[in-house]
Amino acid sequence: MTQPETGQIYHIPVLLQESLDGLDIKPEGIYVDVTFGGGGHSRGILERLGKQGRLYGFDQDADAERNIPDDDRFVFVRGNFRYLANFLRYHEVKEVDGILADLGVSWHHFDDASRGFSFRSDSPLDMRMNNRKGRTAADVLNKYDEEALARVFFLYGELKNSRRIASEIARARLTKPFETTGELTEILKPFAGKDRDRQFFAKAFQALRIEVNGELEALEEFLVQAKRTLKAGGRLAVITYHSLEDRMVKNFFKTGNIEGRIETDVYGNKPSPFAAASKAITPSEEEMSQNPRARSAKLRVGELKIK
Q1: Sign of the C-alpha dihedral, residues 107, 108, 112, 115?
Q2: pTM of the model
């Protein structure tokens, strides 16, 4: 995939029509795309909005700013979606009609070798979604102790041999600190099975990316704020790409918390804050064949019924 020109979207939006339908867009409503990225979903929302509608697009990645549409109804917010409520308050927005989150990493990030997201090229070990600040993947590999490294690979990559991996990384960095993705893949190769090497590397890199960006903590903070920000009857549409985040979203829609803990009110009832707008939606075979990024995607849509 070649580098996009200014204004071009940098990946094909996944489950586009399904997510737009799930939002049940009101022409004069206020909506938020908290993962603006290439702007594909945002453009779809704008096409369904009327003249008085408003869309706020969030992204912490400077590259996303090249894709801002020339549209008076659109406001770009440079920031992480974990600060959703604060940024909307700054823009004097109290409640919104719908929120969309596409949690996947774009092909743009995988294709930009300087970002270090892919194991297919020898690149600097960065992996920051906001490359202007914060720790890098190299920082994690070189500074975490063995126990912390094992926890990262086990919890976020679901790798059973996480302790052995952490031990080997700790041994190797004594000779030379990790600087590139190529150095990491060399260390990981003995742990990857012959038939599942691609899946293994994907999980290992996923684990580091989640840790570097604090993705699951940010997702929890976002979900709580989304519930507080939506109007009663408003829709929350979330596209996930792996079981860790999908489990959090599923539990949140069902119980209002990511653990799936069922809480009762003073009358002994077990109210759920959201009503499922549909069953979990996965891409069609046609979409998956045209867009490999869609293969692991799952869309969940909830309608807020309890403020």
Answers
A1: negative
A2: 0.90
